């Protein structure tokens, strides 16, 4: 499962974050849309269609933002006459039932975050064989694109690793040791990010371990993993992580050890990080942050692919999505805070501040 979709973090409001200073803005959402991509209106076609978003889990801010972006993008096509949303609440049987139900309703296209991996592949394959266009995004179901489903749309983990490597070299002055804090044991996403880093890392920078240390993508797991990392690799001068939402927990681990937090290259930070930035920087003057973000926007690419296929129109845009650098404190790109939004809100979504607040006012 992708860290961006499944991280465990408080949703009691960003203003509850430790040190609620807003470094970049008191109440602003700065979007990071995917540049150079076509508009969905190029693929709307003429046939009236129904599209659906099937979530394996929909209970956090990231998923709610994706749902709003899905609805907003679909509304640009007047011949998309209906949009449907389903949430399996982490129940694989309900996920299968949801998708089977969508097929029975006659939907033309489904985009889906498959939280259950290859275990759900038979369900996706069945929907595809029934003539429905199925496009999974971010969470890889396995199988064969073009046979089991239309196409898999994913973030470019190699590009993220390249950004990490370049920034790490700069942050460390070309020499030092880095460690990787990943997600659940053996998950392919954390490994892919680390492989992307390895392929681009400077030879003068040492990698503490060959595999990611496991945080389970939870704040408690982050603190525990960081404590173990400091014991095993005391010379670590920079941390890589695909769980940017856990940065405050990482800081707590350093506080407990009486050490200053080192620079962090991440993905998937949150509103909570922005609202805590002033206090984090005050407590840890040497702390700097890079975060590569915009993962909610990957779902919009998936919808374009699905609509184009349902209309029989070719869409040649890349299914591997490069997401931009959203935070780089070494170069003046500061974290963003909106105290009116939940702590786990993804501030890089391509939505206006008003649209973001509408999501969580319900």
TrEMBL record:
- Protein's cellular compartments: Cell envelope
- Gene3D superfamilies, per the entry: 3.40.50.2300
Its source organism is Arthrobacter ginkgonis
Which InterPro entries does the record match to this protein?
Bact_Solute-Bind_Prot2 (IPR050555), Peripla_BP_I (IPR028082), SBP_2_dom (IPR025997)
Q: Which family does it belong to?
A: Belongs to the bacterial solute-binding protein 2 family.
Give the protein's recorded name. Substrate-binding domain-containing protein
User: Which parts of the sequence belong to the Periplasmic binding protein domain?
Assistant: 58-264
- Tell me which stretches of the chain form a coiled coil: none
Q: What's the superkingdom here?
A: Bacteria
């Amino acid at each position: 499962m992708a860290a961006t979709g499944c991280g465990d973090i408080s949703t009691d409001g960003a203003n509850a974050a430790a040190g609620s200073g807003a470094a970049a803005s008191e109440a602003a959402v700065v979007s990071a849309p995917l540049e150079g991509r076509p508009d969905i209106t190029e693929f709307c076609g003429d046939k009236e269609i129904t599209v659906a978003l099937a979530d394996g889990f929909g209970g956090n801010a990231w998923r709610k933002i994706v749902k709003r972006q899905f609805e907003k993008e679909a509304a640009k096509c007047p011949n998309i006459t209906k949009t449907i949303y389903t949430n399996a609440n982490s129940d694989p049987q309900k996920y299968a039932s949801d998708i089977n139900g969508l097929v029975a309703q006659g939907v033309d296209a489904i985009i889906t975050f498959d939280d259950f991996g290859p275990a759900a592949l038979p369900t996706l394959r069945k929907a595809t064989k029934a003539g429905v266009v199925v496009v999974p995004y971010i969470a890889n179901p396995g199988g064969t694109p073009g046979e089991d489903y239309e196409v898999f749309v994913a973030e470019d983990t190699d590009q993220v690793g390249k950004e990490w490597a370049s920034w790490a070299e700069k942050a460390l002055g070309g020499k030092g040791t880095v460690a990787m804090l990943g997600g659940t044991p053996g998950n392919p996403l954390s490994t892919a990010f680390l492989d992307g880093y390895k392929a681009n890392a400077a030879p003068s920078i040492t990698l503490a371990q060959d595999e990611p240390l496991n945080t389970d993508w939870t704040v408690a797991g982050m603190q525990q993993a960081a404590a173990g990392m400091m014991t095993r690799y005391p010379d670590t001068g920079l941390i890589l992580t695909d769980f940017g939402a856990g940065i405050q927990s990482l800081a707590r681990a350093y506080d407990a050890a009486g050490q200053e937090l080192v620079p962090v290259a991440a993905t998937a930070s949150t509103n909570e990080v922005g609202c805590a930035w002033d206090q984090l920087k005050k407590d840890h003057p040497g702390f700097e942050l890079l975060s590569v973000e915009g993962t909610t926007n990957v779902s919009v690419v998936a919808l374009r692919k699905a609509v184009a296929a349902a209309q029989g129109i070719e869409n040649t845009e890349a299914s591997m999505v490069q997401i931009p650098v959203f935070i780089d404190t070494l170069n003046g790109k500061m974290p963003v805070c909106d105290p009116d939004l939940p702590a786990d809100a993804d501030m890089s979504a391509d939505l206006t501040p008003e649209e973001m607040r509408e999501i969580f006012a319900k």
